[in-house]
Specification:
The complex is a heterotrimer. Chain A is α+β, with helices and mostly antiparallel strands. Chain A has two domains: about 80 residues, Beta-grasp domain (Ubiquitin-like (UB roll), Roll); about 70 residues, DNA polymerase, domain 1 (Orthogonal Bundle). Chain A is built from five helices and five strands. Chain C has three domains: about 45 residues, Uridine Diphospho-n-acetylenolpyruvylglucosamine Reductase, domain 2, CATH 3.30.43; about 110 residues, Uridine Diphospho-n-acetylenolpyruvylglucosamine Reductase, domain 3, CATH 3.30.465.10; about 110 residues, Enolase-like, domain 1, CATH 3.30.390.50. In chain C, the strands form four sheets. In chain C, strands 4-5-10-6-7 form a five-stranded antiparallel sheet. In chain C, helix 2 links the parallel strand 2 and strand 3. The N and C termini of chain C lie far apart (about 50 Å). The chains are: A alpha+beta, B alpha+beta, C alpha+beta. Chain B: This is Molybdopterin-dependent oxidoreductase. Chain B: Keywords: Molybdenum, Oxidoreductase. Chain B: It holds the Pfam family MoCoBD_2.
Chain lengths: ~160, ~775, ~290
Amino acid sequence: MSKKQIKTTVNGVEHEILVDSTWTLLETLRDQLKLTGTKEGCSNGNCGACTVMVDGQSSCSCLVLAPEANGREITTVEGLADHGHLSPVQDAFVENSGLQCGFCTPGFMIATTALLNDNPHPTENEIRLKLAGNLCRCTGYDKIVRSVQDAAERLNKA
Amino acid sequence: MTTEIRSNADGLEFKQFGKRYRKVDGDDKVTGQAVFGADFTAKGSLFAKIVRSPYAHARIVSIDTSEAEAMAGVEAVCTAADFPSDVAGDVDTGEVEIGIQFLANLIMGRRKALFEGHPVAAVAATDIHIAEEAARRIKIEWEVLPAVTDPIEAMAQDAPLLHEGLIATSLSGSADAPSNIAGHMEGGKGDVEKGFEESDVVVERTYRTALVHQGYLEPEAETVHWHADGRIEVWANSQGSFPLRQNMSNLLGVDVSKIKVMPLEVGGAFGAKNTPRVTPIAAILSQKAGKPVKIVLTREEVLKATGPASGAVVTVKMGATKDGVLKAAQSRLVFGAGGFPGSPVLRGMQTIFACYQPENSKVDAYDVVTNAPRVAAYRAPGATVATFCGESTLDDLAREIGMDPIDFRIKNASKTGDSNVDDEEYARIGIVQMLETVKASDEYNRPVKASKNGFPVGRGVGIGWWPCGIEISSARIMVNHDGGVDVTIGAVDLHGVRTGTAQVAAETLGIEPEEVYVHTADTEGIPYTGNAAGSRITRTLSQAVYKAGVSVIDQMKAKMAVRFGVDAEFVEYEGGNFYARDNQDSKVSFKEAGSLVTKNGSNIVATASNDPGMRAANGYAMAVADVEVDPDTGKVQLTDFTLFQDVGKCVNPTQVESQMQGGAVQGIGWALSEEYVYDDQGLMRNASFLDYRMPTALDLPMINTVILEEPADDGAFGIRGVGEPPIVPPPAAIGNAISDAVGVRMGRLPMSPERVFEAMKDSSK
Amino acid sequence: MPNFDYEAPTSLMSALELLAQPGENRPLAGGTDVIDQLKSNRRNADLVVDLKRIPELLNIESNGSGLHVGSAVSCTEVHNFTTEKGGFAALAESTELVGSVHIQNRGSVGGNVCNAAPSADTIPSLLIHEAVAHTASASGEREIPLIDFFAGPGQTVLEKGEILKELVLPTPSANTASAYLRFIPRNEMDIAVAGVGSLIEVDPSTNLVTKARIALASVAPTPVRAYAAEEFLEGTKIDADAIDKTADLAVGSAVPITDVRGSAEYRKELIRVLTRRTLTICLERLA
């Protein structure tokens, strides 16, 4: 087993940790840093429940090795609210009921935040395209799309 | 003192109903703070891995766990030998039941593996990677047997026999010899042969559907701690804390009172998480190790070895006169149950013609075991498949007669007081009203949008019915020192029950939902509550909350009487205020009164459960689907979709819509892209989300919903079951839309592109 | 997961030295294939060499010799660059189809090529542009036309210790159009059941096709070119009839298998349809 000392910034906080080369970023976040907001749904990049941002880019953390996080900035769902104040994306999802069981929701929070960072005025089709990598089984996506549209409006007003 | 109990909602206005309140558990979920099974780790916990059969059908010759046990970090290993063998008692696994002996065998295979992935051993270690390695070192000697996954093939005399002692039971007695047929059930009335003779048009077709999975995003994840003093603690990922507790008791031979189940958030279940699968294994490992044990399944394990929904072969024959009288309806349903008996074929039988009153009917239902994972409940188990087959046939029949498909349905629709194929009388239902609403709707009448690609387009409808269920729900209401209200429930919140419950409590107490705090308790904190299943939580819980709320008001009135200096019968509660009769100036708000009373040392607490004799309130939904079909590839794109559903009385429209949309999309996936694919060894070829294809956001249009209210008969504000009906009609509506678009009748689910392409090619020959 | 070590060298030279060591050394770019394969024990590794700190492998530019795509450049970056730059429409389209946006953000085009799945979405687009693979190892460098890069399903001609350094695509002329279409059962996320990339160059003075390149995915052990179809189309005046005939000929280059994603017959039919459709789009793009 090869261990690597890495320095990674997660949600603005720098961590210096010893990781196994074979760990994924997902299990490192959940098991080592106890940030259990990011979920494991499928282990092979097909469901998006593990979506985090790596240097601002949405990524499936189940397909990133822990040592790859060295020197990178990771954002997880825990990093979106500001001292307990929900971000406009988070608030829009609660207001519009863009969630039911909540398991896929952290992935959608990151994917939506990344989407709106990149494209502040997405069409419905663009929203669906950029969220196609995040599976939801409870909502049928209708209220998720509406939540994203509402979040875009809120962000554009701000 | 008597209080009026509202048993029928006709014409009554409810202040808090029909309102969209902010989802109370939303903040924790969008911040990632909500705790699901895999997020929880008990202090000192071990981590376990299950060892599973790589074969679909095999005898266990021997299991050697010595190498695994010798590994550093491994603290417990178990096989079926560690589980009690003479289990007895009932088990409650929700809407798809299973006998306890079978369940025990399903959880840990004893002599045989009956499907790929069947657990046969498990290891607990200090680290999950050690457990995984140890699991690989468990040596199992197998005698591989031929496997059969197709239910028709499994019925054949020479099919590989799964259970040596399985004798089919039927109305005419027991079979002569063991086979893979567990049961043959029959129903119907009249004389279908005569009915077909009297028909001007008869349509007959055989349909075939594949296994599908509930597809919950959260793999099963649970922790169990079997303490040295015999107490067992379970941090559960289950739809019902109390049924799980009872099931564990029966499976492990431990008193119910020694078991505590604490529900964590559930990341989707849809019926499947009523079956204890992981908890008993974690319990035995914990008992052996003396530490908590946590098990988290992988997606591959979930797809291969939890409880999907039955695949089936269904023949339907229907006959009608030229003027649209349904003379005869007949069906033979064969459902695959997986490795142990108990598919929901009876439900299929019950629902296939439920919306209609054929003059003569005959239904034969076969429950057949196969070398596939034993099925579990999936949202209206059996109905989606049955409805696809029945509605597809009926649609063809209507067209051949030349009658509008909805008119044909209206003419033969079931009404209040009619009876079902198994002679049960319908309580108040509004199927005709729903059909008429759809018939008059813009969604049904406007032209189908032309395809931007110039592809053929079409529209189809389908209607589905589900009996829904009744279980016991309990609620406790307490008034706090600030006059705010605590509502404790036993129901696991799968989709938003806490929000709706706050509304019902607020309605009953005459206050605002913001002053009500709802939470789900563990099995020590509230009386018995059954599984969150059968679309019955809102209905039964509303009655329980109502009863508790009425008691709270009565208690408060008694206390306020002392303050007002009058007898209790002269205290009124109206518009959110207590006052002495004829003295409006004495008005005190609920909040103020609650505070005054409780601060003075009086507790205001009421606990109630719904009446066990409460009747289920049937649910039914109708889908209108527009599709375009790529004529060159067979790919079907859903372009417009609306679900109409009668919910009796709508508490929270947002919650109701959410259930409708989620269920409908599961039905859409079932219709177009989801299926289990097995090879000839009975091994699953698509056990990942790459090739088990659930709809993504890009595959779907907005899912429109229309909520109808024909109140149910008794007990709970007229509320009907909401959660299950939405999944029932979509495959039927989509099949009918494809027929409308390209003139082919699809006889298989899913209606994947290649199948539609082949059907179009065949029909053009 | 096999027990591997991990290194993230910052120069190409050190990467090549690491990869030349004895043992199974696996280069890692986006990881969206490699990590999945390691996790499911479909591939083994003693050492994983992360290429993402090596500047020349992260570079994408267009210059006199064409479009240069460093082997670790992500699909998203290639998509954004080619969309802005123009001239490589098929490649721009393909890079938006690989998995989801999360996969595209990490997965590299170079990795998609080296993973060498016959179904890879970026490969037909690269083939029709006559991409050349520039490789490097401790013992030297090679230039391999991409059509010669594949040896079988999941197999390239790369030798031990050799990596793909960059892909070079000659800049097409102004009268060139390309398109890529794949067929999947859903609308995203699926592996292509069949895929076609088409490119045509038309001489505006004669209206004749001066260059036709058609490449097929998922219908052979490797991605292939439909040479017979190309030969037919070159020199013709392209119209609906010519397109139909070209499509029929493209089917002849397809030798698909039947698997869980589709039957051989259906795949052949899809090749016909996708060839026709991509050529029609190319025509529209030229107009």
